[in-house]
Amino acid sequence: MASGDSKPQEGDAASKPPSAERQSPSPSLSENWKERILLPTLVAGAGGGGYGLVSKHRTVQGFPHISAAYAANFAIVAGCYCGAREFVRVTRKSGPDDLLNSAIAGFSTGALLGRLQGGQLGAIRYSFIFAIAGTSVDFATIKLRPKLRSLKESIFGDEKNEGGGWKLPVWSPIQVLDEDALAKKEAREKQLKAQRLALIKLTKEES
Questions:
Q1: Which one, 48, 71, 137, 196, has least CB within 10 Å?
Q2: Radius of gyration of the chain, Cα coordinates, nearest whole angstrom
Q3: Beta carbons within 8 Å of 201's beta carbon, 6+ residues apart
Q4: Are 115 and 80 within 8 A, CB to CB?
């Protein structure tokens, strides 16, 4: 009887799908918050401050005031949008590159800020503007991310490479040569110098 009772238990354990045993952890709002919320907010604030310097209102209100106002507005918009995007990502339990999160976050952020700024009509207008702009920026970021990563690796080196560190890119006209490259360069210069001296000597003998 004991052996017969143990068979269903073994069958129940074997019938469990592997996915139930190893479930992927649910996304967290604090995951990469510096990269996905804080950094875009700071960049938007800096961009807003720079835009204030060339704004037509700078002569009326002054450089410091208008730059601070634009920087604050840009930072608030970017912070609200990025925070809403991460909240939607966690709620939907989706990946960080899901553009539907960007569309939902842009629509909700635009509706909220537009309502505060221009009433119901402003909420409708800004919701579509923010949804389109936010999704477009995130799409461009996803496409440019591999190129930015390769540029970072070309400048700072690969993290897996022990000899990695800050270095000039390959396309830079100024390069720091290592010992082998420096030795080859010196040998090449000596060879060219010897050829020039031989050519000068031959020219003198002919004359």
A1: 196
A2: 31
A3: none
A4: no
